[in-house]
Amino acid sequence: MRSPSGDLVAALDIGGTKIAGALVDSGGARLRTARRRTPAEKDAAAVAGAVAEVLDELRGAPEWPRVRAAGIGSAGPVDASRGTVSPVNIPGWRDFPLVDEVRRLIGGHPVVLVGDGVAMTAAEHWQGAARGWANALCMVVSTGVGGGLVLDGRLHSGPTGNAGHIGHISVDLDGDACPCGSRGCVERIASGPNIARRALDAGWRPGPDGDATAAGVAAAARAGDPLALASFDRAARALAAGIAATAALVEIGVAVVGGGVAGAGDVLLAPLRRHLRDYAALSFTADVEVVPAMLGSDAGLVGAAAAAAEQVGMWDRRRTS
Fold it and tell me: How do residues 77-136 score in pLDDT, each as one tens digit?
């Protein structure tokens, strides 16, 4: 399948468990893919070696000569202004010069780095649930809570590639300490591990399958367990407060919710929409729509490609109405 423009982006999606790569065309198709396990328990050189293996596999594809840029969506923190990454879940990488390393491996093409939440946002705006919206917040609710912004029809990644990181908006001034150093963050309340922790602390116990994760709590909530429902309701309130705060600052029209925890469906989304009516009370925030993400596990690679293409001026895409 040949892209209309012919130009491709080499995309990387880097997380604590896997490093994925793809050659992505201007229609969002992944023409070639490669994947390696992230050796997160090893040193910086070993993790960089896994990235090199992914890129080497892509470079062997016959389509490689059509690559004009590379896009990276990485677990954070990232610092696009310096081209470095320090993912919490990859201890061996601290201020690792990922952009320089990738540029060296791919022969000097432009390299664009964004956080994984921003990459998901770029993907959903290009081809998913935020398509056609000029102003949107997209978020990933999973092991952590991340996000990104579209403003005036363009991805707004900020100077360091982290803009829209809703997970570290404080919504509980006297809440639990967050590993980021703040207190009462959305992530500390709404992430999967914290949903499970709160349910267990309240007395909830897993069913016969022993699943003590947020997925197990979601299953219990669907069955009507009051402690499981209460934990998801608390998470939904935190997300609603964060969305309302974002809407008050930048007047978004839609909030797209993705990630593993969002797989709970209406167990999360129904109370989220209900609480948002209470928090988003101003006239210019009251009509924010909450919708589920559409792209799932494809979002990281598609979004990394979209972010790179937008920044370097490839693929004259019209993504908003």
Answer: 899 999 999 988 899 999 999 999 999 999 889 999 999 899 999 999 999 999 999 999
Based on the domain organization, do 104 and 225 belong to the same domain? no
Q: Tell me the CATH number at 191.
A: 3.30.420.40
Cα–Cα distance for residue pair 110/252, rounded to 1 Å: 31
Per-residue pLDDT reduced to its tens digit, 160-200: 888 899 999 999 999 999 888 899 999 999 999 999 999 99
The phi and psi torsions of 222 (rounded to 5 degrees) equal: -60, -30
- Any domain includes 311: no
Q: How high is the pLDDT of residue 318?
A: 42
- Three-state SS string over 2-17 comes to CCCCCCEEEEEEECCC
Query: Same structural domain for residues 98 and 141?
Result: no
The boundaries of the domain holding residue 54 are 8-115
- Tally of domains in the chain: 2
The verdict on 81 and 191 lying in the same domain is no
